[in-house]
Amino acid sequence: MAGDWIKMRGNLWDDPRVARICDMTDSGEAAVVGALYWLWSTADQHTEDGCMPGLTLRQIDRKTGLQGFGAALVAIGWLVDDPHGVVIQGFEEHNGTSAKRRATDAQRKATFRNVSASDADNLRTDAGQKAPDCGAREREEIKDTHTALASDWVLPKAWGDWAIAEYPHWTPDVIRSIADQFADHFRAKASTSADWLASWHKWCRDDLTHRAHPQPRASPVKAPSITVPSTDKGADQFKAAMDARAASATKPPPGFLASARRVVGTA
What we know:
Layout: H1 16-25, H2 29-46, E1 51-53, H3 57-64, H4 69-76, E2 79-82, E3 85-88, H5 91-94, H6 96-111, H7 117-122, E4 147-148, H8 157-166, H9 172-188, E5 192-193, H10 196-205, H11 207-212, H12 232-250, H13 256-266
Antiparallel strand pairs: 1-3, 2-3, 4-5
Helix pairs in contact: 1-4
């Protein structure tokens, strides 16, 4: 007898072979899984290797209330029908003393996952030692380090100094206001934390906090004014010079008219 507990897979319900047994026996998964539990428990109580002399397929059907259950187990390869009784295939792989010892070792190593590899190996059950009673398995409790925020909590100076160094635009009054909101929030929700300093850092970095206390925008730099001297005077002088030149170009030279008249009179 290997003990008063058996190993059953958590996904047994969805195993395709269980579905096939359901079809062959015209039963539901709950009935089939329950029948398997009875069969494997019986084998665990009365045998070390899964061989049960004297047990027949007809007896299995009668005890489980599922007609054709024994034959279905034979069909999927989970049971061997022998003239002297029945044999559960792979029984020692999943149940029996050695299999249970392996399962217990795996569970303990998972529980103590924070210990070193060498320490984990020392947790293995020694060969020949009585298999632990997993009906009352001893699991080391992992200490819960989460605590609630104290009702009289005030922001530590070091936490405030950190906030000022990280966000220089926050004034001491702003930081005290943020700390009050931090405390009110977590007290109202009765929240716990394993590291309240880390929670404070996260709270300060939160977008909602920064939207409520944004960094002031820098004032725009006014461009210096440049006085450009007026060019109107130069333009006027240039125009006057051009007008004078045009006038001189059209005016006949002195004596031109008198010479012209003498030539005409002569003619």
